[in-house]
Amino acid sequence: MGTVSSMTGYGNVKIQTELGELNIDVRSVNSRFLDFSFRCLEEFRPFEPKIRELVASTVARGKVEVRFNLTASSAISASHINEQALSKLLSMQEQVLALAPNAAKLSVTAILQFEGILETPETDKEKFEESILAGVRDCLQLFKESRLREGEALKNVLLKYCGQIDALVDELEPKIPLILHTMKEKLVERLDEALTQTLSENSQISKEEINDRIRQEVTLYGIKIDVNEEMERLRTHVREVRRVLDKGGAVGRRLDFLMQELNREANTLGSKAASIDMTQTSVNLKLVIESMREQIQNLE
């Protein structure tokens, strides 16, 4: 039995780096395609292409955001600080304080968050990159697991809705022969009354011709309101939904298409409705299908 993933998920890990504690945050929401964004200090920007590759190997669809937040270590050596950038920032701070004496001064943590202040030592870059990517992999694993958990919950909800559609079809099906018989009898009565009136006004039309016309109209009407094909197609589409969910993988687009097919059959059933029972079943089917469609929007 395959697994399905939700497009919404979350993962978080904290790792220690030579720059301090790095909080790695990965989250996603629904999207028709894979939409990746990376929010970080410029010191981490060079890692973006490899992080993008890791995300693409984990996720097929969804708007995915990877966010890095650094809590700088008090033990950072001077070799990690760009003195020129720091001097420029402090000079700007003095200008602000001259114009606004009551303004708060920047904290050490705030200063280190500014672009260009921290530099990674050349000799440590390879080791630094590997520690960052290892942290991203760990975070993506937690992120993937959260998507799978939610996907499993959504799968169970969809299977419950499949059972509701089967129940609605099973409830209506035994009533259809009686509904069709009743509607045909009413049609025969109306046609017989109308055509008998025509016979009385036009002696050239025989009673046998009138009866033949009634039989033709009743047959055509029976074909028009027969919903056996729609009922069978509803069952077929529900079986396919179950098969797709059981197979697993990236099922969202396929299930969305099946919802369109189910909705088409429910609409056709409503347009052919020859009784209150058929109309109500059509309405209830569309409500269930719409609920399924809303849940499917969350599936990868």
Automatic annotation (TrEMBL):
Give the organism, scientific name. Answer: Parasutterella muris
Which Pfam family name is an example for this entry?
YicC-like_N
The domain of life for this entry's organism is Bacteria
Q: Where is the Endoribonuclease YicC-like N-terminal domain?
A: 4-155
InterPro entries membership: YicC-like_C, YicC-like_N, YicC/YloC-like
List cofactor names only.
a divalent metal cation
The protein's UniProt keywords, in alphabetical order, are: Endonuclease, Hydrolase, Nuclease
Q: Mind telling me what this protein is named?
A: YicC family protein
Give the family, as the similarity comment puts it. Answer: Belongs to the YicC/YloC family.
Q: Where is the Endoribonuclease YicC-like C-terminal domain?
A: 183-300
Named from the GO MF annotations, one term is: hydrolase activity
Is Phosphoprotein included in the keywords of this UniProt record?
Answer: no
